[in-house]
């Protein structure tokens, strides 16, 4: 009897020590609350977030492919993809939107400069994502490139299942027009990105 | 020829970036030298010794883990398991316990003003400044021996890597890779002992942009805000576990706070 109790005492911490994915989500749902425009439900994981968390952002090739195929279906490509690079620059600079202190109604930004280098003149850029300096200059502005850039901004997970880049169109952060303006900011030969 | 042209074009820009980086470093050093954090510690000490609440007692009998009233080195050993509450608690959570259990204040009163502003700082921020200042020079040593401490550490690790919210972020999205930055702000890798030691030992901190001393609970709250998560509950199990994970990862480094930030 005493042995059993001891065994129980040793076994219990091991059980406690490894919370399951469901436990972790339940704790988040209990410990976060709605504030402003951000609803509590946003702390629950969708399938992509759950698989990426569980696999340390390295799903099997098969599962990764499946995610990308599913996410690709969320993108509706407009007929015309190039907007206005000048408006695109403002969107790339702005980090506003989607936080619990933002108000509905103010236009969101893309926070692009938080993670990427874009135009050479802007030295305050982040490095979490690759440099996009001269993006259109090296790749041109052909139909396929336009489509890739639009799709990547709309839903980065359609191209790389566990990408760290937010799904800016899918999440409702940016509108179709705003993404078009960013396509132009990256690809238009007149844009400072390509100067 | 083309290469040379690019080189000439790139040079002044590199120089500008270098200058900006140097200026930021100079600014950070200047901030460290003339930090108002000390004034907050003094104010906190006065509050610590002031009798309050229905029981009209001060915090001088508050047990932060080393015994009633022992403040020196206590913060360096938090978060930890407390028998009276049967919970792992961080500093802020423990201060709330002392407000309710020791001073007899209602939880509503204790949590009425957890984050202050420049015009009116909160009691919590003052008390935290005093307590953490009393751990300066003490090596970080948050314990993981009690089963609940181990569970808290393991949960904290899971919380750190948990991706969610409209932007799919986890803490690791910004604090998981070396030598990265947001705009000009360098990002420590908090899952790595070296990164955690460097960053965690300077929080809580006086933040110049807020003209105010900010607690670790605030730091975590504002990270989640920028991650596009809903708001974390103050001193909830998730935030305490995350703090515990960071504290344990930072173990061995001497505490250097309260720090001074931009």
Structure at a glance:
The complex is a heterodimer of chains A (195) and B (262). With 195 residues, chain A is mainly α. Chain A has helices at 2-17, 21-31, 47-54, 61-72, 85-93, 112-115, 135-139, 143-154, 176-187; one strand at residues 32-33.
3D architecture notes:
The complex is a heterodimer of chains A (195) and B (262). The longest helix of chain A has 16 residues, at 2-17. Chain A has two domains: 2-63, no CATH class; 85-194, Cytochrome c-like domain (Cytochrome Bc1 Complex, Chain D, domain 2). The N and C termini of chain A lie far apart (79 Å). Chain A is an all-alpha fold and 195 residues long. Residues 1-15 of chain A have low confidence and may be disordered. Chain A has helices at 2-17, 21-31, 47-54, 61-72, 85-93, 112-115, 135-139, 143-154, 176-187; one strand spanning 32-33. In chain A, 46% of the residues lie in helices and 1% in strands. In chain A, helix 5 (85-93) packs across helix 9 and helix 8 packs across helix 9 (176-187). By secondary structure, chain B is mainly alpha-helical. Chain B has a single domain (37-261), classed as Cytochrome c-like domain (Cytochrome Bc1 Complex, Chain D, domain 2, Orthogonal Bundle), CATH 1.10.760. In chain B, 47% of the residues lie in helices and 9% in strands. Chain B has ten helices and eight strands. In chain B, the strands form three sheets. A three-stranded mixed β-sheet of chain B has the order 6-5-8. A two-stranded antiparallel ribbon of chain B has the order 1-2. In chain B, a hairpin with a 4-residue loop joins strand 5 and strand 6. In chain B, helix 2 (37-48) crosses helix 5 (123-133) and helix 6 (147-160) packs across helix 10 (237-249). The chains are: A mainly alpha (195), B mainly alpha (262). Chains A and B meet through helix 1, helix 2, strand 1, helix 3 and helix 6 of A and helix 1, helix 6, strand 3, helix 9 and strand 7 of B. Strand 1 (32-33) of chain A pairs antiparallel with strand 7 of chain B, so a sheet runs across the interface.
């Amino acid at each position: 009897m005493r042995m059993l109790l001891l065994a129980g005492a040793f076994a219990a911490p091991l059980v406690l020590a490894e919370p399951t994915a469901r436990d972790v989500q339940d704790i988040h749902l209990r410990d976060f609350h709605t504030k402003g425009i951000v609803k509590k439900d946003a702390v629950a994981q969708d399938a992509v977030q759950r698989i990426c968390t569980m696999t340390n952002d390295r799903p099997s090739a098969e599962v990764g492919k499946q995610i990308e195929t599913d996410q690709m279906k969320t993108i509706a490509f407009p007929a015309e993809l190039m907007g206005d690079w000048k408006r695109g620059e403002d969107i790339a600079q702005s980090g506003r939107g989607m936080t619990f202190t933002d108000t509905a109604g103010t236009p969101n930004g893309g926070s692009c400069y938080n993670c990427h280098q874009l135009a050479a003149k802007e030295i305050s850029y982040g490095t979490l994502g690759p440099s996009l300096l001269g993006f259109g200059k090296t790749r041109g502005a052909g139909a396929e490139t336009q489509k890739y850039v639009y799709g990547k901004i709309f839903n980065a997970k359609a191209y790389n299942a566990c990408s760290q880049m937010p799904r800016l169109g899918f999440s409702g952060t940016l509108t179709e027009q705003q993404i078009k303006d960013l396509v132009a900011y990256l690809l238009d030969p007149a844009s400072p990105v390509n100067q | 020829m083309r290469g040379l042209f690019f080189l000439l074009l790139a040079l002044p820009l590199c120089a500008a970036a270098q200058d900006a980086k140097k200026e930021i470093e100079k600014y950070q050093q200047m901030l460290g030298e003339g930090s108002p954090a000390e004034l907050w510690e003094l104010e906190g000490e006065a509050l610590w010794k002031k009798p309050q609440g229905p029981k009209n007692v001060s915090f001088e009998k508050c047990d932060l883990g080393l015994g009633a009233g022992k403040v020196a080195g206590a913060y360096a050993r938090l978060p930890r398991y407390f028998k009276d509450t049967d919970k792992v608690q961080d500093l802020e959570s423990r201060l709330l316990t002392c407000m309710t259990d020791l001073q007899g204040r209602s939880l509503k009163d204790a949590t009425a003003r957890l984050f202050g502003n420049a015009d009116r700082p909160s009691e919590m921020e003052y008390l935290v400044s005093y307590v953490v200042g009393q751990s300066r020079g003490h090596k970080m040593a948050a314990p993981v021996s009690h089963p609940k401490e181990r569970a808290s550490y393991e949960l904290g690790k899971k919380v750190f890597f948990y991706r969610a919210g409209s932007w799919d972020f986890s803490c690791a999205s910004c604090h998981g890779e070396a030598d990265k930055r947001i705009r000009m702000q360098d990002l420590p890798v908090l899952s790595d002992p070296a990164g955690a030691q460097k960053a965690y030992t300077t929080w809580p901190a006086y933040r110049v942009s807020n003209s105010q001393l900010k607690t670790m609970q605030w730091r975590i709250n504002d990270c989640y805000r920028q991650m596009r998560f809903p708001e974390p509950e103050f001193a909830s199990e998730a935030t305490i576990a995350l703090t515990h994970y960071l504290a344990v990862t930072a173990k061995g480094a001497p505490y250097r706070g309260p720090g001074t930030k931009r």
